[in-house]
């Protein structure tokens, strides 16, 4: 098969040639955009799921849908321990710049930019240089209290969008990495905006424990956001993800090849692209057969072991690696295990392992599925660990 014509795209956050299995979320978001633009109440949206299920890809697709409807948009990627005041300022600046050419009152836009500049300067980093020539406003979004400032800033931004008959959508990736104070402020701002019907929505994406994090911050967050769990593809959507791009290049998979690939990938979108790319490059001709898959699978697994899995494993300390190996030995598949069982496996008391567990959570390698249990954030990570030599 010609590698130049290989249609599969296993990049981080890279949109696959066929975005299969996400039609429901895309259609639902179109309704949100339409309702908000008409002044009807709608909740902001939070996408949750494991690594590799395509949350970032879907986040980008939803942003494209908002842009198509002439909304102002901005995107932020949260980072552990870093306030999002600065990144939010940049994202909101971009969103309003998209709306400004259609606004009939340049002075209104300029007044908002002055408020935005005042908000940004309170970050205290001195790193944000947006090229806003106006002086920072006084008495608006400049108290230094993020919750107060954020409510005022987003309210003003929404009014700019309302003036031109559209809205603003802010897209927040890795939302679970927001500092607790920022989570409080964001929830409070979204709550205020939802009560006033302001045309601004936040679309977040994060790991499966994100709903619990938001709920711990503000009790009303479970009613404030609409949660969409993003998971593996079912067999029909998996087939669509592989066969549609192949047909466009004049190639086909036989039924046994598709079944073998589904067994190898479990329908996880990143794996579908990774295995699909390797199988394409390995197969001598179309149709691609189960024998082609069997030949290609070891190469695909080797590449994932170095990049997708290995890069994460290398970030862990020796104690953290021991903890993850114990998790892998306790459970087959992507299921949670009891922290007490991990402690027993390691011959330790549960309390003594809390620092190790917390370190893994902060590195984004595991998450607390529910009280007293722990699970990998990456699908098939346990299988990867079970295949590694004990001293690696």
What do you see in this structure?
Keywords: Heme, Iron, Metal-binding. The chain has 392 residues and is an alpha/beta fold. It folds into three domains: 23-229, Rossmann fold (3-Layer(aba) Sandwich), CATH 3.40.50.300; 235-312, Helicase, Ruva Protein, domain 3, CATH 1.10.8; 317-386, Arc Repressor Mutant, subunit A. The protein is 53% helix and 9% strand. The chain contains 16 helices and eight strands. It has helices spanning 23-37, 55-68, 85-99, 106-121, 146-163, 180-196, 210-217, 221-224, 235-248, 255-265, 269-282, 290-313, 318-330, 339-346, 354-362, 381-386; strands at 44-48, 72-77, 168-173, 200-206, 225-229, 337-338, 366-367, 373-376. A five-stranded parallel beta sheet has the order 2-3-4-1-5, sandwiched between helices. A three-stranded antiparallel beta sheet has the order 6-8-7. Strand 3, helix 6 (180-196) and strand 4 form a beta-alpha-beta unit. The protein starts with 22 loop residues before the first helix and ends in a 6-residue tail after the last helix.
Number of helices: 16
Order of helices and strands: HEHEHHHEHEHHEHHHHHEHHEEH
Uncertain parts: none
CATH superfamily of the largest domain: P-loop containing nucleotide triphosphate hydrolases
Count of structural domains? 3
Sheet with the most strands? 5 strands, parallel
Number of DSSP E strands: 8
CATH class of the largest domain: Alpha Beta
Biggest sheet: strands side by side, in what order?
2-3-4-1-5
Radius of gyration: 23 Å
Strand content: 5-15%
The helix content, as a percent range, equals 40-55%
Overall pLDDT confidence: 92
CA-based shape = globular
Derived from helix and strand composition plus strand pairing, the structural class reads: alpha/beta
End-to-end separation: 36 Å
Instruction: Indicate the CATH architecture of the largest domain.
Output: 3-Layer(aba) Sandwich
The CATH topology label of the largest domain is Rossmann fold
GO molecular function: electron transfer activity; heme binding; metal ion binding
Domain Cytochrome c: 162-328
Keywords: Heme, Iron, Metal-binding
Region (Disordered): 1-20
